[in-house]
Design goal:
By secondary structure, the chain is α/β, with parallel strands linked by helices. It is about 25% helix and about 30% strand. The chain has one domain (about 1-215): Class I glutamine amidotransferase (GATase) domain (Rossmann fold), CATH 3.40.50.
């Protein structure tokens, strides 16, 4: 069973619908015991970083999120769910994130030809690594291994983004996909049992469903 954390954030229903479409047993819950019993847990969300952290605190979800991520259970953050896993965001100065992963969330810089928020389809570059974790030369796009969410996904596939802030991970060895939008955006990360995407797989057509299927099959 896959549990989706309900903390009054946007876009939860579309994640549920996508996973059900893949034939998964899904529950939307803020019950700590249900989250502990789940096989996998998803933290989705669209909204303000500070407001989302406040909601997690209000529903007493922060301790169980730490418990679940430390248990080794597969855990997926989506959009704001990715951002909340890190330490802080320029969107909400003074508000601490969950701090499960190291890094900052920064505002996408203004550019004359770029609209903020970044909203729409962008291609992602999949980071491939050798057995020692070293990045494979981008000129050899089939060598090495991608992150586990991207098995069977072609490099430069298009996925759907909606955000004004982006991740700058402190440890680039956890980055599994990037995209370009004025700056290089860390679009997906993986560390052990923890996975996260800045883009919305549930809104990313067949590519997104394939990514969610890879998570469901972990």
């Amino acid at each position: 069973m896959i549990a989706i954390i309900d903390y009054d954030a946007g876009n939860i229903k579309s994640v549920e619908k996508a996973l059900v479409r893949l034939g998964q047993e899904v529950t939307v819950t803020r019950d700590a015991d249900v989250l502990r019993r789940a096989d996998k847990v998803v933290l989705p969300g669209v909204g303000n970083f500070g407001d989302c952290m406040q909601n997690l605190e209000r529903f007493n979800l922060i301790p169980v999120i730490h418990e679940v991520t430390e248990s080794g259970k597969p855990f997926l953050g989506i959009c704001v769910g990715l951002q909340l896993l890190f330490e802080e965001s320029e969107e909400s100065p003074g508000v601490s994130g969950l701090g499960i992963l190291k890094g900052k969330i920064l505002r996408i810089p203004e550019r004359d030809n770029l609209k903020i928020p970044h909203m729409g389809w962008n291609s992602i570059h999949l980071v491939r690594r050798d057995a020692e974790g070293r990045v494979i030369d981008a000129k050899n796009p089939t060598a090495g291994e991608t992150g586990r969410l991207f098995r069977g996904i072609p490099d430069e596939s298009y996925v759907y983004f909606v955000h004004s802030y982006y991740l700058q991970a402190a440890d680039e060895s956890i980055v599994t996909a990037t995209t370009e939008y004025g700056v290089t955006i860390h679009a997906s990360v993986e560390k052990g049992n923890i996975f996260a995407t800045q883009f919305h797989p549930e809104k990313s057509s067949d590519t997104g469903l394939a990514i969610l299927r890879n998570f469901a099959e972990l």
